[in-house]
Amino acid sequence: METTDKVPAGVKFRRICRVLHRDLSYFFAGVICIYAVSGITLNHKRDFNAAYSIERSEFTVKGDFPESGTSVDREFVTGLIGQLSEKETYSRHAMAGENTLKVFFKGGSSLEVELDDGEAVYEKVRKRPVLYQFNRLHYNPSRWWTWFSDIFAVSLMLITLTGMFMLNGPKGMWGRGGIEFAVGLLFPLLFILLL
User: Fold this and answer.
1) Alpha carbon distance 189, 164 (integer Å)
2) What is the pTM of this model?
3) Separation of alpha carbons 144 and 160, rounded Å
4) Which residue from 125, 162, 122, 152 is spatially nearest to 17, judged by alpha carbons?
């Protein structure tokens, strides 16, 4: 006579939760870390530009400046660009006032020159390595990434829910885990109510 031990449904459910929790956590660990880092930097965007490094420097350019009201040609602008300590790629230039020339470079940098005395302000803009790319992913750069992000968001919910029900007993959802869940839920609820 054969005896078959039936595994209780609760045990099966917790096994499935452990497998899903483990596998999804490993698969999405890199994306979770990327989103966490970019999330922190975006939270502090008023204090810190995580995507770009911006440096301003003031100096005096040399040259024969055109008289007020006359147009500035590309050759004159090229001479000004040659006086920069950094190599920049010209994009365009325009007059920002009667005597103020603004030169724009590819990548976002700019040079502003007062044509009456040669006083100049150079604003160097550079992408921050790694952080720029992390933040770009946070802003959904393509349709394919949108799909991946949606799958990732659903998987985060699964990781959380399976984690909540992996344990049974006093450390599980109906014990200490449930209390921690309720306390953790209070913080966003308070912010929602107070905003």
Assistant:
1) 19
2) 0.72
3) 24
4) 162
Q: pLDDT tens across 137-151, in order?
A: 888 889 999 999 999
Using alpha carbons, select from 126, 135, 128 the residue that is nearest to residue 55.
126
Q: From CA 183, how far away is CA 189, in angstroms rounded?
A: 10
Q: Which residue has the tokens 């390595």?
A: 129
Element (H, E) at 161: helix 143-164
Residue 153 near residue 68, CB atoms below 8 Å: no
Neighbouring CB atoms inside 10 A of 113's CB total 26
Domain layout of the chain by residue ranges: 19-48+140-186, 52-127
Residue range 44-102, pLDDT digits in tens:
989 989 899 999 999 999 888 877 667 788 888 998 899 998 899 999 999 888 889 99
SS (H, E, C) 9-45: HHHHHHHHHHHHHHHHHHHHHHHHHHHHHHHHHHHCC
